[in-house]
């Protein structure tokens, strides 16, 4: 019995020592959990897809891999019919410190989200994508890539309409026009809203000829205009002086059952008083007023200060202060309120006619309308006093600005310099000039031109030539300054210096 036990013990010890010792196994530092071993790319893509479909988004962070364009694109392609899963992946990818999705990935996600009718997210990513692009040439790369993804996925054409609208809103009218043309060629009609965005952007950029071309093409392919479209086109007509055409559009609009809105009428009034053959230019303000009266006849309209403000400003710029004040009283009679724009227009009108005291009286009255003068108000009044030769009062206005915590601008200082020179007080102007330089005020080409003109009128050629060197050094030698210098030196008979300046003009290509 004892012998058997001994044999069994010996076998056990023999078995133990014939197996590898724990000390000869790989070090613990080299051991890794099974899930951290490197996955092949197809396995990794499959694993990510499964986790996304199961909504186990946090588990993706535990996988040992670096985000890259090929991994993100592969997952997006595989899950393209699952927009929520793709969106979660894209959000996770966008949060990485060392990785950002590229243009191709963005184009894939917007198509996927659009197909899933997740339009808010689609718009957000399109805006983000176009915002990343730094120039117009690269902006078109976005369009090219969107087309490639569309051909790969066979969806979603809605993205083309949306990118056109994004381009238009960001002022990339060339890109928006390219999309508009490409969609028309392929028989896909852009939405009316996107077309309106394009038209509006073209008007803002002053591309008025193109506006009419796009509008005609819209009508030709069967896109029916709405009130917004007509209003944009009325604005375009008025901006290029075609007020008659603007009225034709309003009539066409009414014939189609659309009622002009307040914006439409504002555009017409602006057309009359501002541009091209606007009636205010040929003293036919009565026609402009008639538009205002038409607005008052529409029961659904609530009159506002804007329309009155445009007319009051036009009367003031034409020196017709009685009519301006009549319009102001009519406006107040309707229960509308004065605003800063209207006050500044009337103050400017008074000052242009030399009625500075009336202008100052209106400034005092502003407090009763709960309005505060701004920099434009004070600068207009200051200029009015300077034009009348009342520089002492002008300096008082400058002091008042400082009291009201309104910083005098370079316009303020230039007006004072010009006022002193106009009054013949060139020594005082020069003293103010040196004071401004000492205080570190950034004087501009207008400032230098005023003092240069002062030296020349005082026939101080040495002072003028010395200042001229500073003008050249600072790059302030504009065509007007050259002309001032040449005329002044010619009057003094300094022909040699004139020839030198003319040579300098040729050298600088003036």
Automatic annotation (TrEMBL):
<dbReference type="Pfam" id="PF01535">
    <property type="entry name" value="PPR"/>
</dbReference>
<feature type="repeat" description="PPR">
    <location>
        <begin position="226"/>
        <end position="260"/>
    </location>
</feature>
<feature type="repeat" description="PPR">
    <location>
        <begin position="339"/>
        <end position="373"/>
    </location>
</feature>
<dbReference type="Pfam" id="PF12854">
    <property type="entry name" value="PPR_1"/>
</dbReference>
<feature type="repeat" description="PPR">
    <location>
        <begin position="304"/>
        <end position="338"/>
    </location>
</feature>
<comment type="similarity">
    <text>Belongs to the PPR family. P subfamily.</text>
</comment>
<feature type="repeat" description="PPR">
    <location>
        <begin position="191"/>
        <end position="225"/>
    </location>
</feature>
<dbReference type="InterPro" id="IPR002885">
    <property type="entry name" value="PPR_rpt"/>
</dbReference>
<dbReference type="InterPro" id="IPR051240">
    <property type="entry name" value="Mito_RNA-Proc/Resp"/>
</dbReference>
<feature type="repeat" description="PPR">
    <location>
        <begin position="478"/>
        <end position="510"/>
    </location>
</feature>
<dbReference type="InterPro" id="IPR011990">
    <property type="entry name" value="TPR-like_helical_dom_sf"/>
</dbReference>
<feature type="repeat" description="PPR">
    <location>
        <begin position="374"/>
        <end position="408"/>
    </location>
</feature>
<dbReference type="Pfam" id="PF13041">
    <property type="entry name" value="PPR_2"/>
</dbReference>
<protein>
    <recommendedName>
        <fullName>Pentacotripeptide-repeat region of PRORP domain-containing protein</fullName>
    </recommendedName>
</protein>
<dbReference type="GO" id="GO:0003729">
    <property type="term" value="F:mRNA binding"/>
</dbReference>
<feature type="repeat" description="PPR">
    <location>
        <begin position="156"/>
        <end position="190"/>
    </location>
</feature>
<keyword id="KW-0677">Repeat</keyword>
<feature type="repeat" description="PPR">
    <location>
        <begin position="409"/>
        <end position="443"/>
    </location>
</feature>
């Amino acid at each position: 019995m004892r012998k058997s036990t001994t044999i069994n013990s010996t076998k056990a010890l023999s078995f133990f020592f014939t197996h590898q010792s724990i000390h000869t196994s790989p070090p613990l530092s080299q051991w890794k959990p099974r899930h951290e071993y490197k996955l092949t790319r197809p396995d990794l893509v499959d694993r990510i897809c499964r986790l996304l479909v199961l909504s186990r988004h946090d588990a993706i962070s535990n996988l040992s891999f670096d985000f890259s364009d090929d991994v993100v694109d592969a997952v997006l392609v595989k899950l393209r019919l699952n927009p929520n899963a793709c969106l979660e992946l894209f959000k996770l990818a966008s949060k990485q410190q060392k990785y950002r999705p590229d243009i191709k990935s963005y184009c894939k996600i917007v198509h996927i989200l659009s197909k899933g009718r997740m339009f808010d997210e689609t718009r957000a990513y399109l805006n983000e994508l176009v915002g990343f692009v730094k120039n117009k040439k690269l902006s078109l790369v976005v369009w090219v890539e969107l087309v490639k993804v569309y051909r790969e996925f066979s969806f979603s054409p809605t993205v083309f309409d949306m990118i056109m609208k994004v381009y238009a809103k960001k002022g990339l009218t060339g890109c928006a026009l390219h999309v508009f043309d490409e969609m028309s060629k392929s028989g896909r009609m852009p939405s009316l809203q996107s077309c309106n965005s394009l038209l509006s952007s073209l008007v803002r950029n002053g591309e008025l000829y193109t506006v009419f071309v796009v509008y005609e093409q819209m009508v030709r392919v069967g896109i029916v205009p709405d009130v917004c479209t007509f209003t944009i086109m009325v604005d375009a007509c008025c901006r290029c002086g075609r007020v008659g055409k603007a009225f034709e559009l309003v009539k066409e609009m009414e014939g189609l059952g659309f009622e002009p809105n307040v914006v439409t009428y504002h555009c017409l009034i602006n057309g009359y008083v501002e541009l091209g053959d606007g009636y205010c230019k040929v003293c036919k303000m009565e026609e402009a007023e008639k538009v205002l009266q038409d607005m008052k006849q529409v029961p659904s309209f609530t009159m506002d200060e804007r329309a009155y403000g445009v007319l009051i400003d036009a009367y003031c710029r034409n020196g017709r202060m009685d009519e301006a004040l009549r319009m102001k009283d009519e406006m107040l009679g309707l229960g509308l309120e004065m605003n800063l724009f209207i006050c500044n227009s009337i103050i400017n009108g008074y000052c242009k006619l030399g009625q500075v005291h009336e202008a100052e009286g209106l400034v005092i009255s502003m407090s009763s309308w709960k309005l505060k003068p701004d920099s434009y108000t004070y600068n207009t009044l200051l200029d009015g006093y300077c034009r009348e030769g009342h520089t002492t009062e002008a300096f008082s206005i400058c002091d008042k600005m400082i009291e009201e915590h309104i910083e005098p601008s370079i316009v303020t200082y230039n007006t004072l310099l010009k006022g002193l020179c106009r009054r013949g007080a060139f020594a005082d102007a020069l003293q103010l000039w040196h004071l401004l330089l000492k205080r570190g005020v950034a004087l501009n080409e207008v400032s230098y031109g005023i003092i240069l003109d002062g030296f020349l009128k005082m026939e101080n050629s040495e002072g003028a030539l010395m200042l001229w060197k500073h003008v050249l050094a600072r790059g302030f030698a504009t065509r007007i300054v050259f002309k001032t210098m040449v005329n002044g030196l010619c009057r003094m008979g300094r022909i040699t210096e004139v020839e030198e300046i003319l040579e300098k003009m040729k050298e600088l290509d003036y």
